[in-house]
Amino acid sequence: MIRRLYNWTISLAQTPYALWALAVVSFVESSVFPIPPDVLMIPMIIARPSRAWVIAGVALVASVLGGLFGYFIGAILYDAVGLPILEFYGKTEAAEAFKGRFNEWGAWAVLIAGMTPFPYKVITILSGTTGLSLPVFILSSIIARGLRFFIVAALLWKFGAPIRTFIEKRLGLLFAVFLVLLIGGFYLVKYL
Questions:
Q1: Portion of the chain with pLDDT greater than 90, in percent
Q2: How far is residue 14's CA from residue 69's CA, in Å, rounded to a whole number?
Q3: Given a cut of 80, is residue 156 above it in pLDDT?
C-alpha cells in the first residue's frame, strides 16, 4: 500500500497542478500522511530548477499550516483523531512517556522532527496535546521545515539530478547528525 501511495505521489509531480499537489501533500504530511513532500519536490525541481525557491516556499507554507492542523488535532481532537494516528505509527507508548518532558524540550523536538526522517506529524500532534506554546511551535516549525525544504531545493538547484539519490537516501541522516552536533554543542556550552 505504501509503495502504491509513493508512486501515486511521484506521479503528481508531472501534472500541471504539481504545485497544488505539493501544497496538499505538504499540508497533510504534517498531520496524517505518511509520504514526505520531498517525493514531489525532487522531481519538480529537477524538471524546473528555476522554480526551486517557489517550490520550497510552497512546501514550507503548506507544511507549517499542516503542522498547525496537527497541533489542533492534538489540542482538540486527540482522543478521536490524534491517538489513532499515533497508534498507526506505533508511537502511543513513546508519546505517553514523552508528554511529561515534552514542553521543556518542545522547541528542540519540533526542530528535530521537522528536519529529520522522524515523523513530524507525531510532534505536531504531541505539541497540541501537551499545550506547547503556539508561538514556539510556529517559529520552530518555520525554522525546521524551512531549512529542510530550502536545503533540498538548493542542492537540486546547484547539482541537479545527480544529487537526487543522495538526497533521497542520506539527507535525513545528515540532518540527524547535524542536529546531534548542534544539541551537543549547546549542551557543552551550558554545562561545561
A1: 24
A2: 27
A3: yes
One DSSP character per residue, the chain reads: -HHHHHHHHHHHTTSTTHHHHHHHHHHHHTTT-SS-THHHHHHHHHH-GGGHHHHHHHHHHHHHHHHHHHHHHHHHSIIIIIHHHHHHTT-HHHHHHHHHHHHHHHHHHHHHHHHSSS-HHHHHHHHHHHT--HHHHHHHHHHHHHHHHHHHHHHHHHH-GGGHHHHHHHHHHHHHHHHHHHHHHHHHHHH-
Identify whether the C-beta of residue 27 lies closer than 8 Å to the C-beta of residue 65: yes
Q: What is the pLDDT of residue 88?
A: 84
Residue 45 banded pLDDT, cuts 50, 70, 90:
confident
pLDDT in tens, 99-123: 767 777 778 788 777 776 677 888 8
- The set of cell numbers assigned to 73 is 488535532
- How far is 104 from 74, CA to CA, in rounded Å? 17
Q: Judge contact between 33 and 15, C-beta under 8 A.
A: no
